[in-house]
Amino acid sequence: MILRPYGMVIEGTLELGLEVVIEDGVIQQMRPHTGVPDQYILSPAFINAHSHLEYRGLMGKIDEPEYSGWIREITRLKKEQSPDQIRADCLLAAQENRATGVAYLMEHSDRPFAGAAMRAVGLDGVIFQEVITFLEHEAPAEKLKLVEKNAEISRRDFGGPVYLNPHAYQTVDRDTLRLIASARNPISIHVAETRHENAFTRDGSGPIGDFYRANNVPFEPTGKSVLASLNDLGLVHEKTQLVHCCALEDDDIDIIVRQGATVAHCPRSNTRLQCPPAPIRELLDAGVNVGLGLDSAASSGPIDMFAEMRAAIQTSLDRGSFVTPEAVWAMATLKEKASPLIRIHVENARSIEDVIERASPDLVDWV
Question: 274 partner at 20 to 30 Å CA-CA among 34, 72, 101, 153?
Answer without folding.
Answer: 101
